[in-house]
Write a structure and sequence with these properties.
By secondary structure, this protein is α/β, with parallel strands linked by helices. It is built from eleven helices and 21 strands. Strands 11-10-9-8-12-3-13-15-4-16 form a ten-stranded mixed β-sheet, sandwiched between helices. A four-stranded antiparallel β-sheet has the order 18-19-20-21, covered by helices on one side. Helix 5 packs parallel to helix 6. The protein starts with 7 loop residues before the first strand and ends in a 15-residue tail after the last helix.
Length: 470
């Protein structure tokens, strides 16, 4: 990377560090912003210091929060990976998205991949390309196999590096990764996260002169729980460990320390990105988002309660309780966002596409569930509000949830109509969802049930069991 040689024009204190603003920072003010969307895998909202974490240190992401805005109530597209990523890419909630669950398929190479996003679905990357953005997806894709119409190179990304399929992404020492449509053979000898980050930094380095969109999707802290050379750092010996013997994932004698070390490793790499943006003179005019694809997991030996991974919220990955879908959402854009702010705007993954459209001057597609949260980021203009948010999940008996005016209705055992039941919560008074009140408020249940039914459209690919006869 090139040394800094440009004339200094200002120094601004940010938190406890000094940010050097260079000439390029001011010259880039009139350009379209660069956009970096960092999405961790199965990271809980409680895993970050800026959301209350006490054990795991995340200084770089905490600094992002100090430099920008934290959202108090932001939601993932789903409670598992593929539908959440589809929602982010297409601006639709899971009542309308093409991909509504994790559905495995066998690729033409014989390896397992994921059901492909169809050609007719427009992604945020395709929209960015229309406005001369250089685009990359680096990390985990999960929306199409090699040769399929859902391959990232066919969905708006000029460059792809990482895992095409989720099954392979369960291993940090995989047999191979993909660079565009070519396999990169690793023979289970390379820690994938570190290679993914090197590719991301190289992409920023090479494309710093023109606007770029980097969709960075590291697999940390999804299980396996493992770090290279057992680099546990200060976490080694910190916890009362319960060894994980397997099966399914690699045995891990120190899962709590390893999980913490993985999160801190990701935080270290967020700092590397920030330092590179400063070095290249594009820090001020780069919008950086940090979030997670869904709530924390309970796999490979991870104990969310031991580390308070889901914070104050009930549930984890695969739940439609808050702990399964409420995610950390930290946004930094020094040129436009006021430092150290908190937004109480209720937003979700399907809002990202409309937000990018507003930023770059593209008309928002008509068939969108999302609304732009740009006013909530910048404090400029009137922020529209969602009438409701909706989720559906097709595992564990089938689940649906609707959120309106912070009243939340969850429908459980959807695939077993004779066993279907409802839970009602008021998140204003009960964000931890401990006080189920459906019997007390039958009128509210009826109101939300009607909206829930309208929000869901039938999908022949992801039907609920009672719809499969259609």
């Amino acid at each position: 990377m090139k040394p800094i040689t440009n004339t200094l024009i200002a120094c601004t204190l940010i938190g406890s560090s000094t940010h050097v603003v260079k000439a390029e920072d001011t010259r880039s003010a009139g350009k379209q912003p660069n956009i970096i969307y960092i999405m961790a895998d199965d990271l809980g909202i409680g895993d970050l210091g800026c959301y209350g974490q006490r054990f795991i240190k995340t200084p770089a992401i905490d600094q992002m929060a100090a430099n920008g805005v934290r959202f108090a109530q932001h939601y993932s597209g789903s409670t598992v990976s593929a539908p959440s990523r589809c929602s982010l890419m297409t601006g639709k909630h899971t009542g309308h998205t093409y991909i509504r669950g994790n559905k495995g398929v066998k690729g033409e190479d014989g390896f397992p991949y994921d059901f492909a996003l169809k050609a007719g679905e427009t992604t945020v990357a395709e929209i960015a390309q229309r406005h001369n953005y250089i685009t990359a997806c680096i990390g985990k894709w999960g929306l199409g196999s090699p040769g399929s119409e859902g391959h990232p190179n066919k969905k708006g990304f000029d460059y792809f590096f990482g895992y095409l399929g989720q099954a392979n992404a369960h291993r940090y020492y995989p047999p191979f990764l993909f660079e565009n449509d070519q396999k990169v053979i690793l023979n289970k000898e390379v820690y994938s996260h570190d290679l993914i980050m090197e590719k991301a930094l190289t992409f920023i380095e090479k494309n710093s002169e023109a606007p770029f969109f980097l969709y960075l999707t590291p697999t940390i802290p999804h299980a396996d729980l493992i770090v290279p050379n057992n680099e546990l750092g200060e976490y080694d010996g910190m916890f009362d460990e319960k060894p994980y013997p397997g099966p399914g994932y690699t045995p891990q004698p120190k899962p709590r320390a390893t999980y913490a070390a993985m999160v801190s490793r990701l935080d270290r790499d967020v700092n590397r990105i920030m330092e590179l943006l400063k070095e290249k003179g594009i820090y001020e005019n780069t919008l950086v988002i940090f979030t997670s694809d869904n709530g924390t997991h309970k796999e490979g030996g991870h104990d969310p309660d031991a580390l308070d991974s889901n914070g104050a919220f009930r549930g984890c990955k695969r739940d439609l309780y808050e702990g399964g879908i409420r995610t950390p959402f930290v946004v930094q854009w020094p040129a436009r966002i006021q430092k150290g702010t908190v937004s109480y705007h209720i937003s979700a993954f399907w809002d990202f596409l409309p937000t990018v459209c507003e930023i770059i001057g593209e008309s928002i597609p008509v068939k969108m569930d999302g609304i732009s949260y740009l006013p909530a980021l910048t404090g400029e203009g009137e922020q529209k509000q969602h009438d409701y948010l909706y989720w559906e999940f097709h595992e564990e008996g089938g689940k649906q949830a609707i959120l309106k005016d912070n009243w939340k209705l969850i429908r459980l055992q959807v695939n077993n109509p004779e066993k279907t039941y409802y839970e009602l919560y008021n998140l204003n008074a009960d964000p931890a969802e401990q006080l189920e009140s459906s019997a007390q408020y039958p009128g509210k249940v009826r109101e939300l049930k009607e909206i829930m039914d309208k929000a869901h459209t039938y999908s022949p690919i992801f039907p609920f069991q009672h719809e499969s006869q259609k």
